[in-house]
Amino acid sequence: MSDTSALSEYAQKVLLITFQLGLVVLRPIALVVEAASVPLSPDFYPFPLATTLHALRVSHAYKGRVKALGHEGAMKARGLGVELAGYLAMAWGGSLVNALLMGTPPPQLLTAWPLINYISVYAVINSPFISPYHPTSETLDTVVPLIDGLTRAFPISGAVLACSTHSNPAIRNSLMYQIILGGISASGGGMVASTLNVFSPEWRLSTPPILSSGFLGSLDFVAAAVSSVIFGLLTSSHPVYVGATNYLSTLPYLSPASNKAAASSGAAGPLMTVLGARSVVVLFLSIVYATKAYVLHGSPSVARVQARRAKKAAEAEAKANAGESEKQGVKVDVKVKESKKAI
């Protein structure tokens, strides 16, 4: 019994230290999350920091991908409309798919403000004064995992909350729907962009990358889906989480005394507020993307494998585009010959 008691006391001390360290990390993250939901300037630029950072990150990623594939000149020749449509598809793809699955109007199409927010950021970032100084993707991936976590935490939490309060009981009572929509909300833009091949001036349907890119290719969706579970558990977004919430509420240091008392009767409330749960998701995703950056850019063996895969993908896309160009050329030649015969 004494050994069991000592072990229990040791476990409680470890839990207390872990909880205190977690608070030290989560408090500044919570301040950042709270600040990210506030407009940068109510009078001059009334857009939240979170959406502005997301627009910045997607702008860099989209333009970098177009340049890497060698389509920058062809994209300019096709016109600015193709380029902006591809960028917005990458930025809003997840939200548009979620709106379709939930049977609600896409929020980006209800007002012109989101369009102004994203287009203005894209115009500034790709202006002649700033574009020459763009950092590499490797640098951004390594330096700003917190921004990657922050910009994904908002759509994930929004998707979970929207599902849990939906007017349709089939959606409201489905835990699977929460998890799937949470995963799509943070990864759907990249999947839509790659599936439609919006990085090329000639769009075409292709296999979604999540089905053929291995674990790293599906990591965005998997991490977002796990984050949906974390957020849902901490905010009790579904009845399935009630049992776990009641149990966790009885543990030391994890919830207020009032929640512990309620847990004994099976009626404990959420473990955290939306802000607190969102901060935990930001921390989790930041760790995931910091690890991913190291694996992709810091590990020599993995970097070589990824480089080979990227080279093969670029070669395959170049061949496909060349094939499309040849088909267009053949069509033109046939039309010219038919015109000559008619004459």
The residue ranges in which pLDDT falls below 50 over 5 or more consecutive positions are 257-265
* Count of alpha/pi helices: 14
Structural class: mainly alpha
The outline comes out as globular
Rg, rounded, reads: 24 Å
Fraction of residues in β-strands:
under 5%
Q: Largest sheet at a glance?
A: 2 strands, antiparallel
Transmembrane segments: 84-103, 115-133, 175-199, 211-234, 267-290
Keywords: Membrane, Transmembrane, Transmembrane helix
List the helices and strands and how they pair.
Elements: H1 2-36, E1 39-41, E2 45-48, H2 49-68, H3 72-78, H4 80-102, H5 113-125, H6 137-143, H7 145-164, H8 169-172, H9 175-196, H10 214-235, H11 242-249, H12 257-264, H13 274-298, H14 300-342
Antiparallel strand pairs: 1-2
Helix pairs in contact: 1-13, 2-4, 2-5, 2-7, 3-4, 4-9, 6-13, 7-9, 7-10, 7-13, 9-10, 10-13, 11-12, 13-14
Notes on the protein architecture:
The chain is mostly helical and 343 residues long. The protein has helices spanning 2-36, 49-68, 72-78, 80-102, 113-125, 137-143, 145-164, 169-172, 175-196, 214-235, 242-249, 257-264, 274-298, 300-342; strands at residues 39-41, 45-48. The protein has one domain (13-236, 271-298). The chain has 14 helices and 2 strands. The longest helix is centred in the C-terminal third of the chain and has 43 residues, at 300-342. It is globular and about 65 Å long.
